[in-house]
Design a protein that fits this description.
Distance between the termini: 68 Å
Number of domains: 1
Number of strands: 0
Number of helices: 3
């Protein structure tokens, strides 16, 4: 029973960095969506890179948590990690596509 409690505790602690990364990632994406026309292109590129790093951290923590859950259930949930990543990449591509369509030309 101690092994199960230890795994549950570890999953509980994984919620903290997951939540922090999700909040920072959402904030970066929100800022990018609102400020891409006004901000310096270098700053936009840096924020985009940071958002990608944040998202990869979220995916990694998600993967660790599902491995721990798999230890408890003995089920294969590896495919479930891919779903949020695909959804994020699709949303990010659509945001960038829409942003580039409405970006005013610099004179």
């Amino acid at each position: 029973m101690a092994r199960v409690d230890r795994i549950k505790e570890e999953i509980g602690w994984l919620k903290v960095p997951f939540g922090l990364l999700a909040v920072v990632d959402a904030s970066l994406l929100g800022w990018l969506a609102q400020s891409y026309t006004k901000a310096n292109p270098v700053l936009v590129a840096a924020a985009s890179g940071a958002a990608i790093v944040e998202t990869s951290g979220i995916v990694q923590i998600n993967h660790i948590a599902y491995r721990r859950i798999d230890d408890l259930e003995e089920n294969d949930m590896e495919w479930f990690v891919i779903v949020p990543l695909v959804a994020f990449v699709l949303a990010f591509v659509l945001i960038i596509r829409e942003a580039s369509r409405h970006r005013p030309s610099r004179k």
